[in-house]
Amino acid sequence: MAGGRARVDISLDAELVVEVMLLAGVGSPQDAVEAVVRDYIARGHRTEARIQTQEGARQTADTVEQPPQG
Q1: CA nearest 50: which of 62, 61, 42, 40?
Q2: CA gap 37, 34 in Å, rounded
């Protein structure tokens, strides 16, 4: 285990990894894959937070009293 963490070995298309390395500005395939995975996780967390915010706003809007009509 590297740094006390479990390790996973996978095979990837070299062209994909090189493209990620260039886009992310990293110098190793390991760093490139980690950058992609971390970005994916962060994006998922942002999406979850945005959904929770929208649901909270919707619930607040539903509980606001509407003025009587007529």
Answers
A1: 42
A2: 5
Q: Across the strands, what pairs with 2?
A: 5
3-state secondary structure of 20: helix
pTM above 0.90, yes or no: no
Q: Give the burial string for 28-41 (b: 16+ CB within 10 Å, else e).
A: eeeebbebeeeeee
pLDDT digits (tens, 9 = 90+) for 28-53: 999 999 999 999 999 999 998 888 88
**Measuring CA to CA, how many Å separate 6 from each of 14, 25, 38, 67?**
23, 26, 16, 58
Query: pLDDT at residue 10 above 80?
Result: yes
The CA angle 36-38-41, to the nearest 5 degrees, is 110
